[in-house]
Amino acid sequence: MSSERRIEVPVLTRVEGEGALYVHIDGTRVADLRLNIFEPPRFFEKFLEGRSWKEIPDMVARICGICPVAYQMSAVHAIEAAFGARITPAIRRLRRLYYCGEWMESHSLHIHLLAAPDFLGYPDAMALAQDQPGIVRRGLRLQGLGNAILSTMGGRSVHPVGARVGGFYRAPDQAEAVALLARLRAAAQDAEDLVRWTAGLKLPDVTRQAPFVSLRHASEYPMNEGAIVSSEGLNISAAEFDAHVMEHQVPHSTALHALINGKPYWVGPLARLNNNLTHLPPHTLRLAEQTGIHWPSANPYHSIVARALEIHFALHESIAILEHYTPPGEPFVEITPRAGAGAWCTEAPRGILWQRYEMDGEGLVKKSRIVPPTSQNQAQMEADLRASVEENLSLHDDDLRARLEAGIRNYDPCISCSTHFLNLMLKRT
Amino acid sequence: MIRVIGLGSPSGDDQAGWLAARALCGRFDEQRVEVSVLDRPGPALLEHWYKEDSVLLLDAVRGAGEAGSLHCLEGDEIARLADAAISSHSLGVAECVALARTLHAMPGRLCLLGLEIGPVRQADTVSSQVQHSLAKLTEAAYAKIVLWLNS
Fold first, then answer.
1. Which residues of A touch B43 (CB under 8 A)?
2. Chain A contacts of B9, Cβ < 8 Å?
């Protein structure tokens, strides 16, 4: 009998976008493993060239239906950095509220519709909903709350249009803020119960050593601001990102792989939580300690618990912002375009999202770069999958395939977002 | 309560459900018929009805006939179109209705009136073909509401 095995997952399900996995096992050795991304490249960076600074937030929001806020926030901050603009503390708090909505919405969907069925033995979310409707209803309530914040700040929850360079087109009035605050307060128990529920899931017990990379702010759990740090001592500004992160193309993927100082690294809620435990508010930190997980955790499957803890954090952060809210006089600062370059990084639900813009004196984009979290995670995902294969060689092919698919989904890859760049060689004769 | 929900987005023919819903505004007693529009609500659609409601969804649809043709689907017929391999990026109306059914959160009566649109095009306005067919969607919705009001 041949010792060669080939595991193929021709189409990954319950992930965002189109990808596949190919594994070649030779005896006890992984001869080849490729996370194939065949989602077409989208050339967004090229689309943005020549466009006015006023158009960019709405354009980048179109990159992703789940994390448009992240694309908008990295863009507006980077362009403000290029123009030397400074926002007010009130606008900063509104941006933080806006981001809280996205984390709640994205994390709730991932936990309940994508990841949880893997850990409970269900083929899909419908089967989970059939057996445990209360769990899914709770998830939808929390997701709906996130959407309510997005609609309040962005005008609508899908591809919101409320954000602009300098702030927002409109700030919520007092009545909207009071109504939202009441809904958030009423969901506090849901958020706490969700953390306890995820902590009770039977998760694979594995350890993966890779640098955790995230933002870190001097005094708060990071969303829109902070240095880019790693668990191995990296501490750089967004402007220095390019000098440390090397993107490279691999033949089997339309999304670039990224290495930091030559090594795969890990971004996302678990990396963020691991690097920012001291900035969790006391009640969220207490819940984290009660999960029984020894933080910081190097088990990627603890990401589902990290997501639940970030929902808890985001809900209470939103409450704290709205409790002291009064509508600002102007929801934006005036912007004066000038020639220059600016880079910024914010924390998308799936991890750090870096953008850089070169602007001309008219405020038109000369050049842009967007490095989304999923492409940053790809090299580490492949390393993780290799380790998973080696640890599970005794599994039958179907079980091994299911284990690997669950491992990919656990990272919450957004393949549609990640296919942001491809070297295009054009030969004319 | 009868809830009429126009579904869609601001893009081209995907506005069909919105336009039909707006054309129904003011034609019924607001205490008995509520008309609203939603922009790609995903699973949040389930928040917009109660079990005792009659819900009429108006939406643009594709793939089951010539542009301008009208489809009427009731309750479970909608859920049966759902794709089991749910992605949070593509939780459409059928998947949401299937989820509602699974969660025992279906309204008392549910009907989808879908107006077939042609190839997706990016535009601020609907195509002339869909514009000509909008009255058909609006009147079918009107007739359904009257039927429900009288039953």
1. 109, 113, 140, 143-144
2. 158
pLDDT tens-digit series, residues A337-361: 999 999 999 999 999 999 999 999 9
Domain B2-149 has CATH 3.40.50.1450: yes
| Burial state string for A161-194 with b = 16 or more CB within 10 A and e = fewer than 16 | ebbbbbbbeebbeeebbeebbeebeebeebbbeb
In this structure, are residues A345 and A353 in contact, taking their beta carbons and an 8 Å threshold? Answer: yes
Any chain A CB within 8 A of the CB of B85? yes
Closest by alpha carbon to A243, among A253, A231, A264, A228?
A228
Q: Where are the domains of chain A?
A: 44-418
ipTM score: 0.77
A chain contacts of residue B88, beta-carbon cutoff 8 Å: 16, 66, 106, 109-110, 113-114
Rounded CA gap, A218 and A222, in Å? 9
Count of Cβ atoms closer than 10 Å to residue A395 Cβ: 16
Nearest to B119 by CA among B36, B20, B11: B11
Mind listing the pLDDT tens digit for each residue in A76-134?
Answer: 999 999 999 999 999 999 999 999 999 999 999 999 988 999 999 998 888 999 999 99
* Model confidence pTM above 0.90: no
The strand pair at B70-74 and B109-116 is best described as antiparallel
- Cis bond before residue A296 (omega within 30° of 0): yes
Domains of chain B by residue range: 2-149
From A14, A123, A133, residue closest to B103, measured CB to CB: A133
CATH 1.10.645.10 fits A44-418, yes or no: yes
